[in-house]
Amino acid sequence: MQKGQTRTKSKNVSDLPERLVSISDPGGQAAEAYRTLRTSLLYSIVDNPPKVVVVTSPGQREGKSTTCANLAVSLSQAGKSVVLIDCDLRKPVVHGVFDLRNTRGLVDALVGTESVDDLWHTPLENLRVLTSGSIPPNPTELLGSERFTALVEELREAADYVIIDAPPVQLVSDPAIIAVQADGVVLVLDAQSTRKLSARRSIRTLESVGAKVLGTVMNNVKPSRDGTYGGYSYSYGEARSGG
Length: 243
Known about the structure:
33% of the residues lie in helices and 17% in strands. It is an alpha/beta fold. The protein has one domain: P-loop containing nucleotide triphosphate hydrolases (Rossmann fold, 3-Layer(aba) Sandwich). It has an eight-stranded mixed sheet with strand order 3-4-2-5-1-6-7-8, with helices on both faces. The longest helix is centred in the first third of the chain and has 14 residues, at 29-42.
């Protein structure tokens, strides 16, 4: 893959949606929390830091896509070459987070109708985004194909980090299939809605296919009385399904 070939040019920072708090409010507590997540990820495995990372959640509306996008932005702001792929081929969201068109994307690359070099969006310096493309009738088959495996390996060599937005673990088998191709998984939880049992089951499901759960991200945390905490917290190292 040639790094110089891209389909869209970088956007002006002021044009990007507010969900990208790493850009819209870089001095805020949420942006700082994403920088903390970035640091935790970079040092989660000292000898062999993960290059391909899957971000998922137990269920829907727990903030995985927003977390995924802001993590990718934060890494790119640190001068890293980052590729962000929307692998939620059932209910893709990444294109909306970045306000991008989603007429073509990952699906077109996997079925062989387009070269991935012609499908990139570059909303920011150091960041390339591959949206999902049109919703296919067979997402599980596409993600379990040799083409997908080859694409991930190609991108692993072409970028410092590959961040993958995957569907929720408890809804479909896609996340487990995707996680096998990655170096680790970040599980996003909602402090107000995610049940402990659901989180434990998700971790067990991922670990049952040999995926390494790097840790969890807890969002929508109510701030303390003094107004601190920022609504985000992180638990890194090795996540446990019990306890």
